[in-house]
Amino acid sequence: MSTTPPPRHDLSSLRIDDGSRRVTKTGKRLGLFAATLGALLLIGSLLLAFRTQKPVVEVAAARPASGAKAEALLNASGYVTPRRRATVAAKVTGRVEQIYAEEGLHVKAGQVLATLDCSQPNAALTSAKTDRDATAAALSDLQVQSANADRELKRAQGLNTAGVISPQALDTAKTTADSLHSKIALTKEQVRAADARIGISQQDVDNCTVRAPFDGIVVSKDAQRGEMVSPISAGGGFTRTGIATLVDMNSLEIEVDVNESYIARVQTGQRVSATLDAYPDRELPSKVRTVIPTADRQKATVKVRISFDKLDSTILPDMGVKVAFLGVVPPSSGKKSGSEAKALVPKAAVHNDGGKQIVYLVLNDKLERRAVSLGAERGGDVEIMAGLAPGDKLVVRGAEKLHEGQAVEVKQ
């Protein structure tokens, strides 16, 4: 019996013709056109986004120039410091029971900042009062006995005069009365001593309440409820030495270090122009309060304290500040009114354009180029004799290349 071989599959029929593999010239052109169009669209969108992005600039307002022409004799930098600043601590060691001090809290003198655990001082106070009451009770008994002894002595004196009793019996009655008088005097002193101990115990109880020593603002909360506090450093890092830090905001002033080579230029009462680092566009009129009569030999500087003419809520302790010590130059007799400075602007706002001094004003978020006439320099400022008015907004920092009509964004 013969067997038929199984059928074989012809795999050659599944091959792809080489002609169909080739891409036509039209397809290549379409692909190249699509890639080029996509690249152009991407570049165009990037250019559009770049051109529509406004440069961010910082501006400053032109300030009015004072009537007297002042020049900066000396520039210095320092910090705002309070004359009255205290880290309020408890007089006794104890655990914080309640704390009412929070950062930014305005407090009055005598206001409660915290209370400590007062169980032990209260127990000592109760014990002292009990001792005082017991001594006072003993005094009452002695006074009753003394009154009776005085009556016995009076009777003994009468009987002795009548010759009924001996002089020895009279002496005994007198001794008893005098002894009770002495005991009464001693007991009264013991009562006063007990009252003194009560006063000490009461003071310990009062020391468990921490109060503000003066009007001010809490700038630091240094302890929490449940922590141990002590007037001395004890217990390593587990014991606090302060409850809160209090600052009298009405005592803020400027403290600067002046090189001892230039200290002769500084005098008490001298006018000062101060500028906070946080608000560089604001000039704060001030004056020298005192020159500390000692020098730092390591830094070769002398400390100078400057008082603000007027305080406001934006001036905070430990802010950085730059000051210019001013000297007043008297106006000349032949000075014309037209030669007075019209405004003061920062030096950074003035640019040199081909020998001309120009500034850029910001009007409706666009730049306006304006030529100005300069006067004398005043520290970091320069006088504007013509071309500007006080209140004009000038670009002081921002884009390197500026041009008139350019749209800008003012940095807030």
| Quaternary form | single chain
Mean pLDDT: 82
How would you sum up the global shape?
elongated
- Can you tell me the CATH superfamily of the largest domain? Efflux pump adaptor protein, beta barrel domain
Structural class: alpha+beta
In a nutshell, what does this entry contain?
By secondary structure, this protein is of the alpha+beta class. The protein contains 4 helices and 25 strands.
How does this structure look, described?
There is one protein chain. With 412 residues, the protein is an alpha+beta fold. It folds into four domains: 82 residues, conserved putative lor/sdh protein from methanococcus maripaludis s2 fold, CATH 2.40.420.20; 96 residues, Elongation Factor Tu (Ef-tu), domain 3, CATH 2.40.30.170; 69 residues, RNA polymerase II/Efflux pump adaptor protein, barrel-sandwich hybrid domain (OB fold (Dihydrolipoamide Acetyltransferase, E2P)), CATH 2.40.50.100; 88 residues. A hairpin with a 7-residue loop joins β14 and β15. The protein is elongated. The termini are far apart. About 2% of the residues have low confidence.
